[in-house]
Amino acid sequence: MTPAGRVPAAGRAEVRIVAASPATARQVAEVLRRCFSATEQRSYPAGHDGGTRLHLTVDTTHPAEPARSWLVASRSTGDDPA
Q1: Is the N end or the C end of the chain the one with fewer CB atoms within 10 Å?
Q2: Any idea what DSSP says for residue 20?
Q3: Which domain of life does this protein belong to (predicted)?
Q4: If pLDDT is split at 50, 70 and 90, which confidence band does 79 have?
Q5: Residue-wise pLDDT tens digits, 33-73
Q6: Mean pLDDT for the chain?
Q7: Exposed e or buried b for every residue in 52-73, given b needs 16+ CB within 10 A?
Q8: How many Å from the N-terminal Cα to the C-terminal Cα in the chain?
């Protein structure tokens, strides 16, 4: 996990999932892993009300389908206003 205030390396994203149950958090993480290369997930209690926080790092430089086609289609052409 990246320390607070630090930005992950280029092409990587820190993802935090908060869900009512560990099973739900794992399902979301599994979808991300099917789209991107990812680190092993780390889970923590979400707070006093229960639930789960799940953290993982995804590598967007190695996308798999369907993320690859979505990323190509969503790339800016440089004509978009800033």
Answers
A1: C
A2: S
A3: Bacteria
A4: low
A5: 888 888 877 887 787 778 889 998 988 887 777 666 666 66
A6: 79
A7: bebbbbbeeeebeeebeeeeee
A8: 31
Structure tokens at 12: 């990587």
What gap in Å lies between CA 17 and CA 9, rounded to an integer?
A: 20
The C-alpha atoms of residue 29 and residue 2 are separated, in whole angstroms, by 18
pLDDT average, residue stretch 19-41: 86
Residue 45 corresponds to which amino acid? P
Better pLDDT: 72 or 12: 12
Structure tokens at 2: 């990246």
Structure tokens at 75: 């790339």
